[in-house]
Amino acid sequence: MRYFDLFDLPVQFDVDLLTLQDRFRSIQKQVHPDKFANGSDQQKLLAVQQASEVNDAYETLKSSLNRAEYMVAEHGHDVKHEQETIKDGAFLMQQMELREELEDLESSNDPEQALDVFYSDIKKLIKLYTDEFNVNFDKQEYKLAAMSVKKLRFIYKLKSEAEALEDKLLDY
Length: 172
Hints:
The chain is mostly helical. It has helices spanning 3-6, 17-31, 41-62, 64-73, 89-105, 111-138, 142-170. The N and C termini lie far apart (41 Å).
């Protein structure tokens, strides 16, 4: 089952999340296991499997990073399990600088402002690599699109680490 087809959505990175949610709910009503409570064991099992697949599809398309990973995987580039490293020297240098910036946040005189600046940088990079992904995917340059997804994975991981640090520093 192809996820975009399941929800009758065009295969593109930008997804209308409200439409996705509405279609998910509609499909879930049709395949929900409770609807088959009086059915045969085979019908119950099939309903559970279908509901699970619909949930997986929805969770994948709902998340921008998971959606991008899925899109390139559909074209033979499984970036989740691939071991090939990024060989882009400028990106690797940027990675190192961002890691250092993240480490320095803890000792900053004004951690809130430093976090704001860091998040602003992260937001710009997410846009940059998302745009790069879209251009490459639209040109059917799937290997390059997959490389953009790898970069996005790193940026999202860094964002998550910053959020954890923010919780620690600001006692949320």
